[in-house]
Amino acid sequence: MLLPSLEDGITLLDVEGGRGVPILQSLVLDHLLLHDGPAFWVDANGHATTTTLAQIAPSQRLLNRIHVARGFTAYQHYGAVCDLPPAVNKSIQMSTTDAGEAGRGEPSRDEDTSPHTPALIVAPAIDAQYRADDTLSETHTKTLQARTLARLATYAEGYDIPVLITRAQRDEFTESIATVADHHLECEQTRMGPRVVGKDFETLVYPVDDGAYYQTTFAYWRQLLAARATQVGVEPTTPTPSTPTPDGVGTGVTADGETVAATTDPLLDAWTATGTGGR
Fold first, then answer.
1. Residue 127 · residue 169 · CB < 8 Å
2. In whole angstroms, what is the distance from residue 53 CA to residue 43 CA?
3. What is the rounded average pLDDT of the residues 183-187?
4. Where on the tree of life does the source sit, at the highest rank (predicted)?
5. Which of 29, 219, 232, 235 has its CA 20 to 30 A from that of 96?
């Protein structure tokens, strides 16, 4: 209800007004809570901060399932991405060995997941090292970043898992990142908390201290009432005028003598009327 689920393939998360480290880490931890297996994190610009992870993680055992590699240059970042398969194989060998020595395997949450195979790959600020490397020409920089994206797409398909990425900036240099992404999430900061919007998800409510929830949009109440109407056998419909006109249902006259178009909603007429404090 509060966080979107990550689907298989590359998911691009764009956070408005900042790097969005807590939001990124929350999505990662939420996914690990629902799925078995480790997460492999290729970090840039300090997104894998252990302080924040430790503060928001509901269990310290989750942190043991996150394997982090860092690249401080474009070639180091690309090398870390290339080294993901050997790292995954080593992790599988170690986890299966430990499970064998214990005499039993870890219980799996469902038949489609395993505690040994990867559950998620994370690559935040995927463009940061490539745009900051002065030793590469513009052509080589774009080529190296394209190869990184191609490898991540291959891993997403090969392991059948989500790959979560972010970008440091939204500009022409990162248009290819948006193109290669299978899913796109956008997060904006509101006064009640971060609001995430995707193709099949939208944050509509926020929790408060007493356990209740604030609604953030009228769409929440519309969806709630439409679902309730369907449940009790009342088909939700929106009445329309029998003879609609382009300007609504006719005209009206304001207190100042101005002739305006009238709609079927007098409150809407008052709200949108010019010169009356409306917008």
1. yes
2. 14
3. 96
4. Archaea
5. 29
Report the C-alpha gap between 71 and 79 in whole angstroms: 8
Rounded-to-integer distance, Cα 194 and Cα 197, Å: 10
Q: What is the CA radius of gyration of the chain?
A: 25
Residue matched to tokens 């970008």: 167
Reference 189, options 48, 19, 7; nearest CA is 19
pLDDT at 224 (0 to 100): 77
First to last CA, the chain: 33
Q: pLDDT at position 79, please?
A: 96
- 193/206 Cα distance (integer angstroms): 7
pTM: 0.77
